[in-house]
Amino acid sequence: MKQLISAILFSMTLLLCGCAAAPGDEQLEYQTYVKAGQMVPVTQFTDTKGNLIDLTQSTNAKLLVLFATWCPDSQRAMKALEASDLNLDPNVDIIAIGREENTQELDKFASEYEINFPLIADTDRAIYAKFANAGIPRLILLDGNNTIVKTVIGEGENPLAEVQW
User: Fold this and answer.
1) What is the rounded CA–CA span in Å between residue 76 and residue 133?
2) E strands of 55-162, at which residues?
3) Helices (H), 27-71
4) In the chain, what are the domains?
5) Is 4 helix (H, G, I), strand (E, B) or coil?
6) In what side-by-side order are the strands of the sheet with 92-99?
7) Residue among 130, 20, 117 nearest 70 (CA)
8) In Å, how far are 20, 71, 129, 130, 146 from 37, measured between CA atoms?
9) Could you give the C-alpha distances from 155 to 7, 11, 60, 88, 133, in angstroms and in order?
């Protein structure tokens, strides 16, 4: 009974704190490790289809989305992004990185949410850990030279409100 009550209280805390942490995480304080003006710490990814994505090969602006499929704020952000003009802008490359997600989970999510941009599986948080310790969705805006322009935690009703270069 005591474990059930603890689990319920933990679940309520997660709901009140947005998607700061995955179940089992102890630390909920948001820490961002990258700042505007810095170069992006990761420039190469392999998407769920096996394609290499090299940020240095494009001079477009880029939007990196760090998210989790289970997180309601991430789900809202992905729906908003899919429906936005950014999704159709040929001058913006969107890459979404699923924190602690595998290829199968991301492919299922992409199908359900009709995602048409690359998804990256970050099963062990190796990519995410270069950007932050907690808090999703995170939107990282990069210029054409892969310099960080802005970082945004996209919680709330309008997750793309602060996405502007």
Assistant:
1) 21
2) 61-67, 92-99, 119-122, 138-142, 148-153
3) none
4) 2-153 (3.40.30.10)
5) helix
6) 119-122, 92-99, 61-67, 138-142, 148-153
7) 20
8) 25, 29, 19, 16, 10
9) 23, 17, 25, 23, 16
Q: Residue 154 and residue 26: Cα distance in Å, rounded?
A: 21
Token pair recorded at residue 41: 């710490």
- The pLDDT assigned to 20 comes to 55
3-state helix, strand, coil in the chain (%, to 5): 30, 25, 45
Non-local CB neighbours of 73 within 8 Å, separated by 6+ positions = 18, 19, 136, 137, 154, 155, 156, 159
pLDDT tens profile 77-88: 999 999 999 988
| Helix spans in 25-156 (H) | 72-83, 103-113
Position of tokens 């009140």? 16
Q: 21-76: per-residue pLDDT in tens?
A: 555 555 557 888 899 999 999 999 999 999 999 999 999 999 999 999 999 999 99
Closest CA to 18 of 123, 156, 144: 156
Q: Are 161 and 55 in contact (CB under 8 A)?
A: no
